[in-house]
Every structure is written in structure tokens, then in C-alpha cells.
Amino acid sequence: MQFIVPQFIDxxxxxxxxxxxxxxxxxxxxxxxxxxxxxYSDLAMFIVLVIPTAAIFVTFTFANINGVPFHYFLLxxxxxxxxxxxxxxxxxxxxxxxxxxxxxKTEDKLPQSPPKMISHQKLSELALIVDTGGAFHxxxxxxxxxxxxxxxxxxxxxxxxxxxxxx
Length: 167
Hints:
Strand order of the largest sheet: 1-2
Number of helices: 5
Largest sheet: 2 strands, antiparallel
Oligomer: single chain
Number of strands: 6
Structural class: mainly alpha
Strand content: 5-15%
Distance between the termini: 82 Å
Shape: elongated
């Protein structure tokens, strides 16, 4: 059994001739504003007032920007101006505080601990565990590997330390 899929559901239904209900009421309200302007102003002032009023109401009635009615576009634009979604981090941003600035002396800093040393055997064991996703361990292959005659070199665990600074 086939179903009928509705199409063009984003289009407003045309109720009154070629106008949708929203467009019709917008034009009616615009006509009322123009009638009030005519009633309470002379001819020169009426002409000056009716041109921007008609332009505003015609824009709100018929204008679409990227397929969005103008009034939705205007609301989204005002919302974007009041609450921008783009957050920019400034590395040089400084918070002004009322707390007095105190200098930290170099003697007060905690001494740094020496870098941890990892042997070559331990490093290769960790590499095996990482490469196999933890499926194999060095202990599983300990009896299969030949015994090393020379001691394994020690590799610094901390990045940025050269081998000349360890000795």
C-alpha cells in the first residue's frame, strides 16, 4: 500500500486569493495605519509618512530572505545581535581585580622533582600493550624472547629533556 506524502509543507496556504492569512492581516493593519495617518495629518505630511509606512508593511508582507519570511529574519537578526553564538577566546585577556598584586619570589616556588626514568624493556612492554589494544602482555612472551646480554638503556619519561642533560 502506498502512502501520499505531502509536499511543499513549508509553504503558507493561500486563503484569500493569492495572499496567505498572515499576508492579508499584515496588509489590513498597514491600511489601518495609513488611514490613521491620513485622518490626522495634512496632505504634505501624509505623503511623507505614507511612503515609509507602506514600504515597511509591504516588506513585512512579501519579503523573504533565504526562504524565511522577513519578520522571522528580523527576529533572528536581533537575537543574534543580542546573544552572539561565536565565542572568541583571547589569550591576552586580563581580569581586573581589586586584590593587591603580590610578587612570587623564586625561592618560594616548589622545587621540581627529577624526571622519572623508564627502562627500554618497560617502554617496549608498554608499546606492545598499546599496539595490541591490551590483548598481549610482555609476560606472555617472556619465555619465548632471548635473554638480553647487555643492560637496557634508560630513556627519560618526560618530554623535552635531552639525553645530554640526564647524565
